[in-house]
Amino acid sequence: MSAARPFTPLRTLAALAALPLLLTACGYGSESTDDDQRTGVAADAKKLSADEVRIGYFPNLTHATALVGVQEGLFQEELGGTTIKASTFNAGPSEIEALNSGSIDIGWIGPSPAINGYTKADGKNLRIIGGSASGGVKLVVNPDTIKSEDDLKGKKIATPQLGNTQDVAFLNWIAEQGWKVDAQSGKGDVSVVRSDNKVTPDAYKSGSIDGAWVPEPTASKLVADGAKVLLDESDLWPDKKFVITNIIVSQKFLKEHPDVVEAVLRGSVETNKWINANPDEAKASANKALEKLSGKALPAEVIDPAWKSITFLDDPLASTLDTEAEHAVKAGLLEQPDLKGIYDLAPLNKVLKAEGEAEVDDAGLGTR
């Protein structure tokens, strides 16, 4: 098991070899990119039960555990001779499709697509095996036209996608204000405009939207363009924590290769520990990974506030996922789901126990 380590930009040959994995175009639409390269490993490194593990994640700061873990070779250190094949995705549905088809084995993903994917497959395709991040979602608005929450009535506010995690959260917040909006069309007291995160800043600058309920770094990009933060979603949750990124695994892969799953979870725990111990170095590592994906690093005025609003943690915050599912049901975007069995936290708790860390809870939604 890896010990805590200081920041070393070129820590291992594995870290160097991991860099070419990050070659996709940055964005948050519906396409995925297969980074068809493998992480180099030492010739004498011992393989686990699988030759390779295929992982998926977004080119997004809320997926920084995966970005940094690959960038710094932390996953590869735990996997030994089992190599990593990484793919990046721009939306949750395409990542779920990849998991269902066997194109990836393990993925970092938001709660809404995990819930939707699990329920559509009647609970037979995936398990949530860990947490990764909390927070990093804000309502940002044009300060010239919106001074307070009451001013949102009649305005056009963007969310990333119909039924995605932020869309559900905003629809629920609207309902709590006593306002009416048709969830499917987005029409009502507030106009909910579904806009891809990569084009939302241009939509804001053109005046076609008045604000957005979006994840980082899109929120901070809008602030850099003159918007102001009206609401941080963390303030709406107990202890200011809610799940924004989970780790999921194919049930088939979990059954056939539990040692590989456990190694990836060790890598995730080690990465989160390193991120929290070295926030500035970790931020730079994540930005370097994003630069390789997009060709351009995030400027300080964007990445600095964005990074501060995200908490990296191993706990999947299961009770908040259950609440988010209830919000989707109330909005009419999801039939009442049976989420029993969506979690299998035994491998993670084994890793945490070995690290001397507290075990995490599945809120009664663990495997049957």
Description:
By secondary structure, the chain is α/β, with parallel strands linked by helices. Helices cover 38% and strands 18% of the residues. It has 14 helices and twelve strands. The chain has a seven-stranded mixed sheet with strand order 1-3-2-4-11-5-12, sandwiched between helices. Strands 8-7-9-6-10 form a five-stranded mixed sheet, sandwiched between helices. Helix 2 (64-71) packs across helix 10 (258-277), helix 6 crosses helix 13 and helix 10 (258-277) crosses helix 11. It starts with 12 loop residues before the first helix and ends in a 14-residue tail after the last helix.
Task: Name the descriptors.
disordered N terminus, alpha/beta, 368 residues, 14 helices, globular, 7-stranded mixed beta sheet
Query: Strand count, sense and closure of the main sheet?
Result: 7 strands, mixed
- Write out the strand line-up for the largest beta sheet, numbering strands in chain order: 1-3-2-4-11-5-12
**Uncertain spans:** 1-31
SS content category: alpha/beta
Overall mean pLDDT:
89
Measured between the Cα atoms of the first and last residue, the distance is: 30 Å
Over the alpha carbons, how many angstroms does the gyration radius reach?
A: 20 Å
In total, the number of strands is 12
How much helical structure, as a percent, in the residues? 25-40%
Quaternary state reads: single chain
Order of helices and strands: HEEHHEHEHEEEHEHEHEEHHHHEHH
* Global morphology: globular
Query: Helix segment count?
Result: 14
Give the percentage of residues in beta strands.
Answer: 15-25%
